[in-house]
Every structure is written in C-alpha cells, then in structure tokens.
Design brief:
The chain has two domains: 1-64, no CATH class; 66-107. The protein is built from four helices and two strands, in the order E-H-E-H-H-H. It has helices spanning 24-33, 48-56, 68-87, 96-106; strands spanning 10-14, 38-42. The protein has a two-stranded parallel sheet with strand order 1-2. Helix 1 (24-33) runs parallel beside helix 2. It is globular. It starts with 9 loop residues before the first strand and ends with a helix.
Length: 107
C-alpha cells in the first residue's frame, strides 16, 4: 500500500524506535526505501545502528532527543500538529466529543 504510485504524501510517526527489537533492520530499510512520498517522524534515543541506517537515506532528517526538555519540546510540537490537522477535518468540526476522543487516541 505504501508503495502505491497514486498514494499522496503519507506521514508516519514512530515513537521509541530504539525499543524495537524484532525486525528493526527491516523497518529502517523501509524508512529509507519509502522516504520520497512517505514522511517519517522518528523519535528515538541514540543508537549507532539507527543513526548509521538513517544517515544512508538521502531524504531523511535525523533528530536527536538529548534530554527530557527536548522530549517535552517535541511532544508539544507533535500535539500542535495533531490539533492543527484535527481542526482541518470538516467531519469533526461539529462533533467536539469525537474530536476530543480522536485527539486523545492520537496523543
């Protein structure tokens, strides 16, 4: 599905990538392979294997979380992004409880 040429830009968020044990290498390969029309937001502590693989991707950007302050900053920005996207969904504008539920699930 993610390799469909008709697919518009897709955003994938992966939290705690460093905690993935099974098939981490496959997931990193997928991130590098699909970096054109799939935009990745990857949160991870520094791990050499992750850093090396992501640097090999020509369109990927690397973000490092070095302290809780940076993690909180990223969390706030992710929450703003979620709020912005939810505000743009016409189907949720008249249903505030549903909008709040969707927001809570995404966070």
């Amino acid at each position: 599905m993610l390799q469909d040429a008709n697919l518009k830009v897709t955003y994938l968020v992966i939290n705690a990538l460093d905690e993935y044990v099974t098939d981490l290498s496959k997931l990193l390969d997928l991130a590098v392979c699909l970096s054109g029309h799939v935009k990745w937001l990857v949160l991870s502590q520094n791990k050499a294997v992750i850093e090396i693989k992501l640097r090999s991707g020509h369109r990927l950007m690397e973000f490092r979380l070095r302290s809780e302050t940076n993690a909180e900053y990223m969390s706030r920005n992710i929450n703003r992004y979620i709020d912005n996207k939810l505000s743009s969904l016409a189907s949720l504008q008249d249903d505030i409880p549903l909008k709040d539920r969707v927001r809570d699930i995404l966070r």
